[in-house]
Amino acid sequence: MAGETRQVIAPVTAPATSDPKDQAIKISPAYGSTPASFGAFTPGIGKDYAASMTANVISTAGNAGLSVADGASNATGHLINGTFSLPSVLQAKASSPAGTGGALADVGGSAAPTSLLTYAGPTSNDPVKVDFQQHVSANDALRTGSYSKTLTFTLSTTAP
């Protein structure tokens, strides 16, 4: 089925520490929103780190779906620091007043994006909260520097 697609690219970052067709459908980072940031990962301690960002969704379509994908061919779905990647996959979920979301799910690649929200009809200025979770195990080797990944959020429809 043919559908419309609009994308916004948003970076997700986390520093490591060495110390213990028209505008009928669109998504945009919320005004004043900053990229999601996990803060510092601590080596030797197993933990699920959380981060979030906000977005605004407008759609005049009959239905819509918000998804996220990692378009990189290197360590798809994983935060990276240079050529090094974290072993656990980055997870995401979204919530909003108008959309229907689900539980945390692994971030997929461009060929298999991760569904975040579905909309049964048009929506205007729906405030979306996107939550991320990154698991770091106690035995994961962490490199000094920043871990990051640029993700593509897509709002698409099959009923324009």
Which short descriptors sum up this protein?
single chain; about 160 residues; Immunoglobulin-like; 5-stranded antiparallel sheet; elongated; disordered N terminus
Secondary-structure map with pairings?
Elements: E1 5-16, E2 25-29, E3 36-37, E4 47-59, E5 64-70, E6 80-81, E7 84-85, E8 91-95, E9 100-101, E10 105-106, E11 108-109, E12 114-119, E13 123-136, E14 145-156
Parallel strand pairs: 1-3, 5-11
Antiparallel strand pairs: 1-14, 2-4, 4-13, 5-12, 5-14, 6-7, 8-10, 8-13, 9-12
Structural summary, described in words:
The chain is mainly β. It has one domain (19-154): Immunoglobulin-like (Sandwich). The chain is 0% helix and 54% strand. It has strands at residues 5-16, 25-29, 36-37, 47-59, 64-70, 80-81, 84-85, 91-95, 100-101, 105-106, 108-109, 114-119, 123-136, 145-156. Strands 1, 3, 5, 9, 11, 12 and 14 form a seven-stranded mixed sheet that branches. The protein has a five-stranded antiparallel sheet with strand order 2-4-13-8-10, with no helix packed on it. The termini are close together.
